[in-house]
Amino acid sequence: MRKRVVLAKPFSLEDEKDSEHTPPNLIQRILSLFKNVRPGSDLTNFQLPPQMNLPRSQLQCYGEMVYSFSGHDLLGECSRRDQPIERLKSMVTWYISTLRPLIFGMAPYNPVIGETHHVSNRHINVLVEQISHHPPVSALHATHEKENIDVMLCQYFTPKFRGTYVEVEVKGKRVVKLLNQKETYEMNQPKLLMTFLPATGAHWVGKIMIKCPETGLEAELQLLADSFFSRFTGNNKRSIKGKIFESSSRKQLYEIFGNWDRTVTAKNLKTGELEVIYKASENTAKLKTPIVKNLQEVSESESAMVWSEVSEGIMRNDWEKARQGKRDLEEKQRESLRQRKSFGQSWIPKHFSVTRAGKDWDCVPLQPTVPRAPIIVPL
Fold first, then answer.
1. Which SUPFAM superfamilies does the protein's record reference (predicted)?
2. Predicted pLDDT of residue 18
3. Is residue 18 packed enough to be buried (19+ CB in 10 Å), middle (13-18) or exposed (0-12)?
4. b/e string for 125-155 if b means 16 or more Cβ within 10 A?
5. Are 126 and 67 in contact (CB under 8 A)?
6. pLDDT in tens, 234-244
7. pLDDT tens digits for range 15-68
8. What are 354-361's contacts with CB under 8 Å, separation 24+?
9. Which of 52, 99, 161, 178 has the highest CB neighbour count under 10 A?
10. Which of 172, 13, 185, 12 is nearest to 90 (CA)?
């Protein structure tokens, strides 16, 4: 019997208000999971109980960065701008919009190999595939039909336990191509910190670089780690600062500052003019749950179908159903791996060509554009 497609609402700024205070029993539960884990240990294959899972796969979270927004089409705006400096500034705005608040102590499912996620929102079509399980590597391809934009992401991460926090280093890079402008923008990704002491919290931190070789312009953004005092009080400021400059001369053109979950401003250093380039309340405050437009076209590998039993259990607080769903899925994956090994076969992704050099991964989509999806974000 075909499984149900269980779709959960993307986590938004409105939902965050309900998760500002961490219950003491949740902190104790989390710390108990790490009681036998040494500081510095790699947590890549660490499994959480269903009570600490969000009812969605990590693939869905990656896809939501691109297709889930409630305001303007910020990705399309990158190509609509006339001047190179304006396009880079728009690219900075779009990147900031992909940063989303996180819930401390809650995490999405670790995707299984071969799992996919395919969703469309107006002119944007997004396809994500889990191309490796050990180590976990995800590939994303998105295309903007109207503005002829191509987004490619090949992402893998290494979470490590540091005693009072977990540090997640996100490797791989994003590449956005404005094909009408013949411009390529390369960008890296920040780290994630899950802190236990002196206060609980989930924070994006680190340096982000956005470069365009064709225009000779760059942006450098810094997601600031909270001070000791703010961590102690639990006040997460989510500050961002940075600059836009010429690559060759290092001449600074704009100063960027603000809070990525609220408002970000750009200051023109030549004229002194201030411009609000991003308002989170207009873009990520009221996110909509995707819907199934054509059930018959939904792939059996779709995340919402693969994890349907587990998600249904979590959303109904039926933890035994969620645990059994997880066990069944894990056993199915182990059996599939045993069969491949017995025939001397390796996993071949369906939608991407993959190359690996040491610990570095690179992915190229097999198709030039992403087709319209049977799952859509309602207008």
1. Oxysterol-binding protein-like
2. 58
3. exposed
4. bbbbbbbbbeebbbbbbbbbbebebbbbbbb
5. yes
6. 455 889 999 99
7. 766 555 566 676 777 778 777 788 888 777 777 888 889 999 999 999 999 999
8. 354/131, 354/132, 354/139, 359/171, 360/171, 361/131, 361/132, 361/137, 361/154, 361/156, 361/172
9. 178
10. 185
Number of residues in the chain: 379
How does residue 227 score in pLDDT terms, banded at 50, 70 and 90? low
- The torsion angles phi and psi of 325, rounded to 5 degrees, stand at -60, -40
Rounded-to-integer distance, Cα 52 and Cα 14, Å: 20
Q: Under a CB-based contact definition with an 8 Å cutoff, are residues 278 and 264 in contact?
A: yes
What's the rounded mean pLDDT across residues 204-218? 97
Backbone torsions φ then ψ of 24, nearest 5 degrees: -55, -35
Question: Which residues, 6+ apart, have CB-to-CB distance to 95 below 8 Å?
Answer: 187, 208, 210, 221
Is residue 78 a contact partner of residue 149, using CB atoms and an 8 Å limit? Answer: yes
How does residue 280 score in pLDDT terms, banded at 50, 70 and 90?
very high
Token duo for residue 51: 């009570």
* Residues 284 and 13: beta-carbon distance below 8 Å: yes
Question: Which tokens is 249 given?
Answer: 């001369």
156 vs 75, 168, 306, CA distance in Å? 23, 10, 21
Alpha-carbon gap, residue 177 to 211, rounded angstroms: 12
Q: Is the pLDDT of residue 179 over 90?
A: yes
Q: How many CA atoms lie within 13 A of 20 on its CB side?
A: 9
Q: What is the pLDDT of residue 125?
A: 98
Can you tell me the distance from the alpha carbon of 313 to that of 323, in angstroms, rounded to the nearest whole number? 8
Rg of the chain over Cα atoms, rounded to whole angstroms, equals 21
Distance (Å, whole) CA 283 – CA 74: 9
Regarding beta strands 137-144 and 274-279, do their DSSP bridges make them parallel or antiparallel, or are they unpaired?
unpaired
Q: What digits encode the pLDDT tens for the residues 324-370?
A: 999 999 999 899 989 999 999 889 999 999 998 887 889 999 999 99
